[in-house]
Amino acid sequence: MAAQTQDVIDAYSRQCASLLHRNIYLEARLATVERQLLEAQEAAGKVANV
Questions:
Q1: Which domain of life is it from (predicted)?
Q2: CA–centroid distance for 8 within its chain
């Protein structure tokens, strides 16, 4: 019983680590997209002001 409990804990621990890694990746990707959007908006503003 204790071994099964440890197996479940280990599986949840691996899943949690995987989700944390995915979250970090998505946050970094979001920051990149936000920066690209800001750059595009600034470029569009410069074109509109010319």
A1: Bacteria
A2: 26
CA-CA distance, 14 to 18, in Å (whole number)? 6
Confidence (pTM) = 0.70
pLDDT tens digit at each of 50 positions of the chain: 788 999 999 999 999 999 999 999 999 999 999 999 999 999 999 877 65
CA–chain centroid gap for 41, Å, is 23
**What's the rounded Cα separation, in Å, for the pair 9 and 1?**
12
